[in-house]
Amino acid sequence: MNYKTFETDRLILRPSNASDAAFFLELFNSPKWIKYVGQRNVQTLEDAAAYIEEKMTSQLARLGFSNYTVIRKSDNSKLGACGLYDREGIKGVDIGFAFLPQFEKKGYALESALKIKEAAIEIFDIKKISGITVKENEASQKLLEKLGLRFIKMISLTDNDEELMLYELYID
Question: Residue 157: what pLDDT?
Answer without folding.
Answer: 81
